[in-house]
Design goal:
This protein has 485 residues and is α/β, with parallel strands linked by helices. The protein contains 10 helices and 37 strands. Helices cover 20% and strands 29% of the residues. Strand 8 and strand 9 form a beta hairpin.
């Protein structure tokens, strides 16, 4: 293996006590992606291999969140950051390159910053390199100690002298170390500190004492903001959203109200598309060019072609929308919906596992589930496909240029041929031949004068009844006796 190879160890075994959660804080969503996936994404951009996540013993959910390309090491007891890295020694026993060491809760850390660190590490032939930052208030940070201008050690807050505590340059917890050197240094670290833990920071002083060259790269402290509470999660969420919004506006996308637009990190949007307020674009949603999203839309893992108009209140989930379609308002397109070009889906229309051909329209109040619909077909208002009988789901197949009258009920399994016509308020239970008319005869009846009679009956029933006065009863003997007194 080339010594220029790069691996990574991600520290993810913390108990998230300040997060007040039964789950690891690293699985909580940030900008539509689990917190730990932000760091892993940057490492993948660098082609780091292997990537080892050090996790606690109860970490099944976290491991599932990381993905199948990640290796894992278990830190059985929380005995410090150095002890956590030691847990990864076995996983890296055959690795001869340099290892990036970083925490799992650094979602704003960019791959470009890690590249700068790698460049400094390789260019200077350093054995150990690290990121540092300048802060106005260093309280709680590990202080960078220098001698003759070069980094010679890191002192944690609890172990700092008054002079060291006043230092404004701090350690941000990101290192690059040659693998063989890393574990040689760690095995020499002792827990001689206030916490009685094995500090990862002690490898810096150990490297200097061993005559190893140490390099440092400065980073903006905002880029290495950690997440230790839900309030900090919310603050980083705002930062992430603002960064994503700014990037898409720079790419030629109009956001009517960036403050209420939620765009996930894996979303793509074409130029000259306009996104209305209170819109959520989640997962791997892809929107084409010159689209218009009116607002209050919620799209998840959906593909939208060019020149599409999504009207107010549209919800798309795992749907594919062709070019020049019009959807909504208040339409709900559920998973496995596939629309060809120039399809119109109107207000309060719901689709699920449905394919609609080019130019087909369902403009009002319809449910189309488990359906295959051809091109240039019109679905009338109030139409539903009855696809579920309580045990199995069946499919409705409708051909090209079919006219489905309003208030039609299509009972699957059912096939309707091309150019067929379904009369209004029909219940269709059997296949319809191409070009045929299907209808249910219903005779209209009329009762002359019925309204007047009905109103008269209701009026009479509503009049109050007179209550007869009760006859006076003769006074009792006792009452008569009282009055005689």
């Amino acid at each position: 293996m080339s010594r220029s190879a790069i691996g990574a160890v991600v520290l993810a075994a913390g108990r998230s006590t300040r997060f007040r959660s039964a789950r690891s804080k690293l699985v909580h969503p940030l900008g539509g992606r689990p917190i730990i996936q932000w760091v892993l994404s940057s490492l993948r951009d660098l082609a780091a291999d292997p990537i080892v996540a050090v996790v606690g013993p109860q970490s099944a959910e976290l491991r599932a969140t990381c993905g199948s390309d990640i290796s894992f090491a278990i830190q059985e007891q929380p005995r410090g950051t150095g002890h956590a890295v030691l847990a990864a020694e076995r996983a890296l026993r055959r690795f001869d390159g340099s290892v990036l060491l970083l925490y799992g809760d650094l979602p704003l850390l960019r791959a470009d910053t890690l590249r700068r660190l790698l460049t400094a590490h390789r260019k200077g032939g350093s054995g150990l390199s690290l990121l540092t930052a300048r802060v106005d208030d260093p309280l709680g940070w590990g202080r960078i100690v220098r001698r003759d201008g070069r980094v010679c050690g890191i002192v944690e807050q609890r172990d700092a002298s008054p002079q060291q505590a006043a230092i404004g340059e701090v350690n941000v917890g990101v290192y690059c170390v040659r693998a063989a050197l890393l574990f040689k240094l760690l095995h020499k670290v002792t827990p001689n500190n206030a916490q009685r833990e094995i500090y990862l920071t002690d490898i810096v002083a150990g490297a200097v004492a061993a005559g190893v060259s140490v390099a440092d790269v400065t980073v903006d402290v905002a880029e290495v903001a950690q997440i230790n509470s839900r309030a900090e999660l919310a603050a980083v969420e705002r930062t992430v959203r603002a960064q994503i919004a700014a990037r898409w506006m720079a790419e030629g996308v109009t956001l009517d109200d960036p403050a209420t637009t939620y765009i996930g990190p894996d979303v793509t949007i074409g130029a000259d598309t306009v996104i209305g307020p209170n819109t959520h674009l989640r997962g791997r949603t892809a929107i084409g060019a010159r689209c218009r999203v009116d607002g209050s839309a919620y799209l998840t893992d959906s593909t939208v072609g060019d020149d599409v108009h999504l009207k107010f209140g549209v919800v798309l989930s795992e749907a594919e929308i062709g070019a020049h379609c019009q959807i909504g308002p208040f339409a709900h397109l559920r998973p496995a919906t596939r629309l060809a070009d120039h399809v119109h889906i109107g207000d309060f229309v719901e689709t699920k596992n449905a394919r609609l051909g080019r130019g087909t329209k369902a403009n009002h109040l319809a449910y189309l589930g488990d359906a295959e619909i051809g091109s240039e077909t019109n679905i009338g208002a109030g139409t539903i496909t009855c696809n579920y009988d309580g045990f199995t789901k069946s499919r409705t197949v409708i051909g090209d240029r079919v006219q489905v009258g309003s208030d039609s009920t299509l009972v699957a399994p059912l096939t309707i041929g091309d150019d067929a016509y379904l009369a209004t308020a029909s219940t269709v239970r059997h296949d319809v031949a191409p070009g045929a008319l299907a209808f249910n005869p219903r005779q209209q009846e009329e009762r002359p004068g019925w309204v007047a009679e009905f109103r008269a009956r209701k009026s009479a029933a509503a009049k109050p009844r007179k209550v007869a006065k009760a006859a006076a009863k003769p006074p009792s003997a006792m009452a008569a006796k009282r009055r005689s007194r």
